[in-house]
Amino acid sequence: MTPVLVRPARSVDAADLARLAALDSAAPLTGDILLAVAGGDVAAAMSLDTGAVVADPFLPTANLVELLRTAARPAPRRRARLAALPLRPLRAL
């Protein structure tokens, strides 16, 4: 199994993003971008601003794209804890 890393894109990833867009016959992604790096190579990317995705068409990337979409979803909000009820001493009867 190939290790996969999901991380935000940085300026040093510009060439990889341009290559992916060209391979995928797509416009370059804009805004904040999340990458899926498989085996040390950028295999898929997703714009967090638009939701657009580019992926290497010569690799099996459907699972990577799903992983990016899952990682981009906001974490579910935890239910607010109920305020602790004031404790009153119990009286024995």
Describe this structure in words.
This protein is α+β, with helices and mostly antiparallel strands and 93 residues long. Helix content is 23%, strand content 23%. The chain has helices spanning 14-23, 62-72; strands at residues 4-8, 33-38, 41-47, 53-55. It has a four-stranded antiparallel sheet, with helices on both faces. It is elongated. It starts with a strand and ends in a 21-residue tail after the last helix.
Secondary structure elements and pairings:
Blueprint: E1 4-8, H1 14-23, E2 33-38, E3 41-47, E4 53-55, H2 62-72
In short, what is this structure?
The protein contains 2 helices and 4 strands; from the N terminus they run βαβββα. By secondary structure, the chain is of the alpha+beta class.
Record keyword descriptors for this entry:
4 strands, 93 residues, elongated, alpha+beta
Tally of helical segments: 2
- Percentage of residues in DSSP E strands: 15-25%
Structural class: alpha+beta
Query: Got a strand count?
Result: 4
N-to-C terminal Cα separation, in Å? Answer: 67 Å
Radius of gyration: 22 Å
Q: What does the main sheet amount to? A: 4 strands, antiparallel
The coarse overall form would be elongated
Strand order of the largest sheet: 1-2-3-4
Uncertain ranges: none
Provide the residue-averaged pLDDT: 88
Helix content: 10-25%
- Please state the oligomeric state of the protein chains shown: single chain
Order of helices and strands: EHEEEH
